[in-house]
Structures are given as structure tokens and as C-alpha cells.
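Each record in this resource describes a single protein on a pair of labelled lines. An example record follows, reproduced without changes.
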Amino acid sequence: MTPPIRSLPIVVLFFLSAVSSSSLPPEDGIRVVSAERLIHLTGPIARVIITLEVENSAAASDASQVFLAFTPWEVKHLAFVKATRVDGKHRKKAHEPLRVQASDLPATPNGARLYSALLSTHLKPGESTTLEVLYVLTHVLDPYPARIVSQSAEPRQLVYYHDSAVILSPYHVVEQVTYIKMPSDMVESFTKVDPTSCAGAEMKYGTYYDRMPITYLPISVHYENRPFAVVQKLERKVDVPRRGHIKVTDKYKMKQDGAWYKRIFLRLAATILPESLFSSSRFVSHVMLNSYRSKLECPGILAFAKTLPSSSKDRLYFTLVQGPRYGWHCTFTAGYGLPLENYLFESVDGRRYINLTFGFPQLDTVVDDFATTIVLPEGSKNPQTIVPFPTKTSYSYLYYVTGRTKVVLKNKNVVGEHNVPFQVYYESNPIFVLADPLTVWAVIGFIAVCIAYFYFT
């Protein structure tokens, strides 16, 4: 059986180290003294943590940024990246978040893209500092074999992961090591680049010394991973009233993204965690999971769903009873309510703002297309969103009586790291609080006048 060969644009980086002077970062006096990379492959998403000790040359100028290099293939699958500057040692460590953005410098001759971590305090000549970089890659696991014919209830799924034995860096790396953590010790094969060792569910590449900039040593790991699902599309609608409860409706479209086989895929437990979605579960007065609607789009599949309430959270279990012939996909809707007083606040300047959480509560699940619609109360105007990462924001109006402002936030390739709070500020006229009661009393008064008119005539 011949393993699959992915047509990666990064193959051209093999053992290349020459970079033209026009594409070198301006802080060319920086070098990486030591680097440690930890790749987590315990789920369907690859999380990579890199610890870099960088040093600025004594003859160089002040460094205002540190560049990170990614292959074109990694940029395509990059869902999240952040960097933190660590100063001090042991208990006196200070962590400073850094802003990471795509660099406007041209790509290196072999296609590597540069991102810059902006330093709030410049790195003086002769000084050194430590950076911790976290980035998340999605859709990087290739099931092989792609189709499984097994009589067992839960057949083994094997996947391939492709990467480099050394860190792709625009700087000279003096010393580096890479660790790969897998969910189990069931490793079928892996690429050996001496020194390489494998002990149980962990592999080690290195230690490697004196690697030139933009050096790439391709490796592949073939191991067992559990089946996983992907949320193709998630549409969340948040209806913010003037009183009562916030109504939240989630519409899911999910599919199997692993190997196809003829037996049952697995029990898909879609867990609705109010504390993960909106700060704390103690604020949730009721979760309306009994009103959800479920629809399967796989022919010949028998399925059912149930809720298991507890004191702190409610879990929605979506179970496939009769497995599909190959893969599966399904759609369902879940709705719940949240008390308004715990999420709606008033700012110092008199504006009101709603404090919600962006993202999906399942950390090991990726959402390909995510959209959150916030419907503000009647009479709201001049909305302003504060989101800690780039999103596509649009504003529109639902014309009922006086009009309701609608804010739509869209993002692609959403992972658990995007599950952070965001705020929507808006201006509101207090007179609109009386709109509903006055409308009700106006209708009652009109009916009373009509009754009196017909009575006296």
C-alpha cells in the first residue's frame, strides 16, 4: 500500500537556506539562541507552541519586532496565532501579549510568508528576550486509508500529519528541539531525521544545532486518531430585548471529516455549555433544549437526541443509531435563554453594551463558517463592536415598528481559541422602554372606544 503524497508547495523549501537581501527583515541582527516546539496532535486540530529565546546583536540597531515564518501551506490552514513576551525568571515572570500581524515584506524566494510580533519595548543591542508563540492549524490531518471496511463497532482511523523536523525561521537558529504529542502510542510509521526518538505517545526530533534561516526538513507521522466531526456552518442569532431574557438560537450543519467506513461512525455528543458560551452557568435561568429541532440529511440513518439536565449544565447528545454507509452529515437547531440583567450593562459615557462570547464551546472542533447575528432592541442606533480579532462586521435594520438594528459578525476557520468575550455598544433612547406598554394600552383604549361607540349608537 503506497502512502499518499500531498502536493505541498513547501517541498521547494527542502534544505534551502539562502534568502535574498531584499527579503531579509530589517532587524537582521537577531538570532534565535534556543527554540523548543511542542506539537499537540491529540485531536483533529494541530496546536503548536514554540518557545523562542531571541538575542539582538551588539552591533545591530534596536529591534521593534520579531518575525515568524510560515509556509504557504500553513498560512492556508492557519486559524489562530498569538505571541507573548516573557520577561523574568521563575515566580517573577511577566507575560506581555504581543500583537501579531502579517508582514508587508515580500515573501522569501521559496514562498515562506512572514508575520511580525510587535514589541512594545524595543530590544536593545546585546539584549535577549523570550517569546512564546501559539498557532493553530485546521484540516491538516489526512485520513489514510481514506475508506475503512471493518466489522468492529469502532474501527481504527489512521491519519497522516506532515511538518518539518526543524523550525522554519527567518533567523539563524543556534539550538532547537521539536516534540510531537499524539493521542496514543499506536504509531504506524514516522520519518527519521537523526537524532529522532519515539517513546510511547511522544516523539522527539533533535536537538539540532546551527540551522540556517528558512531551513525545512519534511517529515510525516502516520498514527491512530479518533474519528472527528467538523461544523461546516454555524449560525447564531442573539435577540436582545428591552426586558426579559436574551434568546439565543444556534443552527448547526455538521459532517464527518475523517475516514469513511460502513459501520457506525461514533456517538456524537454535542455539548451545550452555557458557562462556556456566556461567561457563567449560574446566570442561565433556563436552557430551552427541549424545543430544538433535529433533521438528518443522510439517507437510511436512524437517529435520536436527548437532553441530560444537571445542576450546572445541560448536555445535548446526538446519537446515530444506524450508521451510514460511508460518511454522514446532519443539521439541527438548539435554543436557550439567558437573563438580560447579567449581560447588558451601561458604560460611563451613557451608552449601553451587551457582553457576549464569540466562538464555539467545543475546543477540539473547528467551525468552517461562523456567523453571529445580534438583534438590538428597538430604537437602538450607532452600534459599535469590539472584537479582539479580525472579523467581517455588517449592520442592517429590521423594519418592524420603529426599526431594530442588526449586527452581523462573520469569521471563518473558528477554533476554541476564538471563544473570547466581545462587546457591542449602542445608543438607546429611554423613551423606547415605554413603547410596548403604550402600544398595548393604545390597542386596549381603541377597543374600548369602539365598544363605547357602538353601545351608545
The longest strand covers residues 245-256. The two ends are 95 Å apart (CA to CA).
